[in-house]
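HUMAN: Would you supply a protein with fold tokens?

ASSISTANT:
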Amino acid sequence: MPIQNSSYNNSPWYLFNEHLETIIPSLFYKVKGVEYERERLELEDGDFLDLDWIKNDNRRLLVLSHGLEGSSQRHYIQRPAKFFSNKGWDILAWNNRSCSGEMNRLPRFYHHGATEDIASVIERGLSNGYEEVVLMGYSMGGGMQQKYLGEREVDDRIKGAISFSVPCNVKESAEQLRLKGNQMYERKFIRRFKQKIREKSKLMEFDMTGIDEVKTFPEFDERFTLKLFPGYRDADDFYSKITSDQYLDKITVPLLIVNALNDPMLGEKCYPVDLARQSDLIHLEMPEKGGHVGFTTSAKDLSYMEHAAERFIEEVILPK
């Protein structure tokens, strides 16, 4: 039953299609006044994660997970960090391996379904004695946290989660990015991945055979990702096992998914309508507009996402 009517309908006039709604905020929006305290979390496999905190001795913690090739410095992470830290929350914005500004130590990077790292981050956050923890993820980070919540028994201090622009079905998202008009996003990500592979090859022996021929996500994943994360037959097998939609019905805390219907990176299966209609916990909001991690309002220091998150926390996760 929890399919929510969306109140997002005031996108600025100059963001008149899904691509402008996606690209303009990503390129030009900045957030002032966010000062993190960085902690390096050493992992059992010998690698590390960089965690960025805002600590004010609150009893509530918001864990922020960025999207593909993002970081804690992205505007869509800094906005909720600033907004919620001013409302009585401590903030933990973490960076996936290779995303904090320093290359990670091991050959592996990260992917949508590699939940061992977010599990380590959440465990570190809980160790500070917080009484109430909420997870908030964007794009890939939202899918990662959904899979984390659905594949394991979570600590009862984790009260709920919120996800924006989530590729709930990774294969459909990859296919969407190969459609005419959307290919620019795939090309951008592939360029970044190739650059990281080249940087990695300067630090350690790394097989770069065929890197110049790679053009698509399946090609990249079969050539590199599957060698760094063995156990998958091919890209299709990889996508079917890491995708978060198969875990949604196992989640035991309230979850809000906000996916715009005009998101250029999401296919039909990224909108779990049937599940939301049957679930008491999975809340789905599908604004007509918003693009991918856009949802811009006239106040550039905030977006609709912060308001939607605050409303869901106050009305569903932690009702007063």
In short: The domain at 3-169+243-317 is CATH 3.40.50.1820 (Rossmann fold). The first strand starts at residue 3 and ends at 4. The beta strands are 3-4, 37-42, 48-54, 60-65, 90-95, 132-138, 158-164, 255-258, 282-285. The longest helix spans residues 183-203.
